[in-house]
Design brief:
The protein has nine helices and two strands, in the order E-H-H-E-H-H-H-H-H-H-H. With 227 residues, the protein is mostly helical.
Length: 227
């Protein structure tokens, strides 16, 4: 298992494994702080980024501690995520896809995870949709960031996988990630939090309000469908 150290000024330390000093990277499971990371491109404005990402401008500014609509190319911004309400499972039908449920159960057992946990987390992340894509580029059933998937393939599994088009590969990577986070944090709740907001932030003892909502949502889905 790769270490959880972080080197290089370009990286979003402390939620990435050992990295090259010249690449911007994210520790597995992170959305860079309280949301997903976006690197400002030439010509971008904060208002346009907020509109494209589907978030309120004031929320975007607050998430990045900005007090003016001033940004620069190359700057990394956090795009806040809106987690589902913890009560949502009671208002919807039980997830039903025997093939995907079997896949999630098999990979959970392979990683010594509670199948209900992995199924609930995947449901909250994507609704079990392999075609799901987030504005920041998170992919598939487990909503893996490309940098996260690359780290898992290169440094953990030593195996090239197709997380973008293969549901099996996406779930395999996500299940291993959850296993790593439980091992590192010592509890399921902390691992769920780290999957959402990043390992470094969680390990430092910070738990954002939206992260608490996310953890509650995952636990509510599991309690409703796979107790």
């Amino acid at each position: 298992m790769a270490s959880l150290s972080c080197t290089g000024s370009a990286s979003l330390c402390s939620h990435r494994s050992t990295i090259s000093p010249t690449r911007t990277s994210y520790f597995p499971g992170s959305r860079s702080g309280v949301g997903e990371a976006y690197k400002v491109q030439p010509g971008d404005t904060l208002s346009e980024i907020a509109l494209r990402s589907g978030v309120d401008l004031d929320e975007l500014m607050a998430a990045n501690s900005l007090n003016a609509d001033l940004i620069f190319a190359g700057q990394t911004l956090v795009i806040p995520r809106q987690p589902p309400a913890a009560s949502s499972p009671q208002a919807s039908e039980r997830p039903h896809s025997p093939e995907l449920e079997s896949l999630l159960e098999d990979r959970a057992r392979a990683e010594a995870l509670d199948p209900g946990l992995l199924k609930a987390l995947a449901w909250v992340e994507s609704g079990w949709q392999q075609g799901a894509r987030s504005p920041a580029g998170a992919i598939g059933i487990m909503q893996l960031m490309p940098g996260t998937a690359e780290w898992l393939e290169r440094d953990v599994l030593d195996q090239d996988l197709d997380e973008e088009f293969s549901a099996y590969d996406n779930v395999k990577l996500g299940a291993r990630l959850v296993h790593i986070l439980i091992d590192k944090t010592g509890s399921e709740d902390s691992a769920i939090a780290a999957y959402y907001q990043g390992y470094g932030t969680t390990a430092a003892g910070t738990l954002y309000a939206e992260t608490k909502d996310y953890v509650a949502a995952v636990k509510a889905v599991r309690a409703a469908y796979w107790p």
